[in-house]
From TrEMBL:
Protein name: Glutamate racemase
GO molecular function: glutamate racemase activity; identical protein binding
Species annotation: Weissella confusa (Lactobacillus confusus)
HAMAP family: Glu_racemase
Keywords: Cell shape, Cell wall biogenesis/degradation, Isomerase, Peptidoglycan synthesis
Gene that this polypeptide is encoded by: racE
Family statement drawn from the similarity comment of this UniProt entry: Belongs to the aspartate/glutamate racemases family.
Uppermost EC category: isomerase
Pfam families in alphabetical order: Asp_Glu_race (PF01177)
EC number(s) on file: 5.1.1.3
Binding residues annotated for substrate, in chain numbering: D10, S11, Y42, G43, N74, T75, T185, H186
Residue numbers annotated as active site: C73 (proton donor/acceptor), C184 (proton donor/acceptor)
GO BP annotations listed: cell wall organization; peptidoglycan biosynthetic process; regulation of cell shape
Gene3D superfamilies per UniProt: 3.40.50.1860
Amino acid sequence: MDNRAIGYIDSGIGGLTVVKQALLQIPDEQVYYVGDTARMPYGPRPQDEVLGFTWQMVNYLLKKDIKMLVVACNTATAAALPDLQAKLDIPVVGVIQPGVDAALRKSTDGEIGVIATAGTVKSLAYYNGLLQGNRAANVVQLAAPEFVDVAENHDYTSEFARQVVKEKLTYFKNHQVDTLILGCTHFPLMEGFIQEAMGPKVTLVNSGAETISTVVEFLDKYDLRHAAANPADHTNDEYFTTGSVKRFATIGGRWLDDKEMTVKHLDIVGDTLVLNESVTD
Ligand code: DGL
């Protein structure tokens, strides 16, 4: 048993789609979250830069004594997971392998699409993982950075969002798939529009949601579950952003249905993230 928090990191609000699943599937567990909104998107950045930014977020959470780390960002998982797993002495869970495993399980014909950031697509992490599991799979990748922009900077429930999704996914009219992996944690915010654009026959895989099954496995394997008799008080969950505190709280609060969500600001000082509670905007 271990009552410390699980730490989550992402380039922005995308990882909250993973947190949402965590709150549903493992409600006893405390949440600490860092979103590097000031430097998002990570998708177009070189892998070594994403690796460096990822370590800065991780180092901040380590100081807060987390018991497990969830890299709730595909781009960061592709760039940093092996390094984090090799160097940290707490369990580290990424979002890509759980998505690969779920897609292989769910696909009927092995025709699998992946929508993700440019960084994730270029890393071939999904592509290689899928082919490793099924040599006969036909994997079609599409970078969709527009969806990250919609999620962070616009109303992701708007008609505008719907049109952006619809237009981008016309690509799959000529590249038929039976299963589509949402290979970026921002994308489940627009899952309804994505399903509508792909049609009801295509199965969507939400990598973030699948990831929580791996988290549960690790909680049990390493005896890290929070005491059930004394579950986490979610008013003590902590959310941090390097960007606008207000905007994070508005979008995050809406997504997690948490009107009281407290979000604190982190300054980027050299290679270190430093808490600055005087920033409230
Ligand atoms: N949410 C992120 C992911 O899962 C990255 C979005 C971005 O910063 O480009 O890949």
